[in-house]
């Protein structure tokens, strides 16, 4: 029997006895391509579409705007020169991130591969990419069991035809959790938080795509971009699954 047919039958059989439940609403997920988001919840994911901020990808919701930068980016003064997020950090999108971060949600890989099609044109426009995950401090990575940005970066490499996984950044300081800090404090907190890995091989002429799970103020991605720029990186883009 063909392997694909076999896998299809296997999943059908498993679903019959062990129905899978939606990560967002807990309803059983109907048999189909998606494994852990039901039809209702995946239709509710707010994918980011154009027009959007050219630097971070935040959508303008069709409003007439005089600037091509969103207010966040005007405050941030970004080092990176373009970016995109897949969806807004709300509803089912926020649950997707939460599962990834706190429930070791690597089982969401096949669903993410389907979701990435929503920003395929932007990703393909970037050409050859070195995909760089935002590193976690080793102590935090041990606590969590894995680095979700590293996992997202590998998913992107699997999705794109011309991308290379390049974990060339190190976290040199264990910055305290940023959730309670304001934008200025976050920027200050991130200074010198990253360094280039001593064994890293950088192709400064290629585009670097720095990958994280969520863009909140952009200060973490900006600190990574600053480190890569200091090492000679010229084309610096950012990608996150969610935009906060
Ligand atoms: Zn659902
Ligand atoms: Zn922006």
Describe this structure in words.
The protein is of the alpha/beta class. The protein has 2 domains: 1-44, no CATH class; 45-243, Rossmann fold (3-Layer(aba) Sandwich), CATH 3.40.50. The protein is 37% helix and 16% strand. The chain contains 10 helices and 7 strands. The strands form 2 sheets. A 5-stranded parallel beta sheet has the order 1-7-6-2-3, sandwiched between helices. Strands 4-5 form a two-stranded antiparallel sheet. The chain is globular and about 55 Å long. The structure holds zinc ion (2 copies). One zinc ion is lined by residues 53, 55-56, 58, 69-70, 72-73.
Write the layout of secondary structure elements.
Layout: H1 3-17, H2 39-44, H3 71-76, E1 82-88, H4 91-102, H5 109-115, H6 120-125, E2 129-133, H7 138-144, H8 148-159, E3 163-165, E4 169-171, H9 183-190, E5 194-196, E6 207-215, H10 219-230, E7 235-243
Parallel strand pairs: 1-7, 2-3, 2-6, 6-7
Antiparallel strand pairs: 4-5
One zinc ion (ZN) is lined by residues 22, 24-25, 27, 38, 40-41.
Integer-rounded radius of gyration: 19 Å
- Cα distance, first to last residue? 46 Å
Tally of helical runs: 10
Biggest sheet character = 5 strands, parallel
Average predicted local confidence, pLDDT: 89
Strand order of the largest sheet: 1-7-6-2-3
The CATH level-2 architecture of the largest domain is identified as: 3-Layer(aba) Sandwich
CATH topology of the largest domain: Rossmann fold
Q: Look at the helices and sheets and give the structural class.
A: alpha/beta
**Roughly what percent helix?**
25-40%
Q: Strand percentage, roughly?
A: 15-25%
The total of beta strands comes to 7
Which hetero ligands occur in this complex?
zinc ion
Which blocks of ≥5 consecutive residues have pLDDT under 50?
none
Give the CATH class of the largest domain: Alpha Beta
Q: What is the element string, with H for helices and E for strands?
A: HHHEHHHEHHEEHEEHE
Shape by Cα distribution: globular
How many structural domains in the coordinates?
Answer: 2
């Amino acid at each position: 029997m063909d392997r694909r047919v076999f896998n299809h039958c296997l999943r059908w059989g498993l679903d019959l006895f062990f129905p899978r439940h939606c990560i967002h609403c807990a309803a059983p997920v109907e048999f189909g391509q998606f494994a852990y988001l039901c039809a209702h919840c995946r239709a509710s994911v707010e994918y980011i579409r154009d027009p959007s901020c050219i630097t971070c990808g935040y959508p303008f919701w069709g409003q007439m705007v005089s600037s091509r930068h969103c207010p966040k980016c005007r405050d941030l003064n970004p080092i990176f020169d373009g970016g995109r997020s897949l969806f807004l950090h709300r509803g089912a999108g926020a649950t997707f991130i939460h599962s990834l971060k706190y429930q070791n949600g690597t089982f969401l890989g096949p669903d993410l591969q389907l979701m990435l099609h929503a920003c395929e044109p932007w990703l393909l426009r970037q050409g050859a990419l070195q995909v760089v995950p935002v590193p976690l401090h080793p102590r935090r990575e041990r606590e969590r069991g894995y680095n979700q940005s590293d996992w997202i970066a590998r998913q992107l490499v699997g999705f794109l035809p011309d991308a290379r996984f390049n974990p060339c950044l190190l976290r040199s300081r264990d910055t305290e959790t940023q959730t309670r800090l304001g934008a200025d404090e976050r920027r200050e907190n991130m200074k010198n938080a990253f360094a280039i890995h001593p064994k890293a091989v950088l192709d400064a002429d290629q585009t670097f795509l720095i990958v994280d799970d969520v863009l909140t103020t952009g200060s973490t991605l900006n600190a990574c971009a600053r480190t890569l720029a200091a090492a000679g990186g010229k084309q610096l883009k950012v990608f996150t699954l969610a935009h906060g």
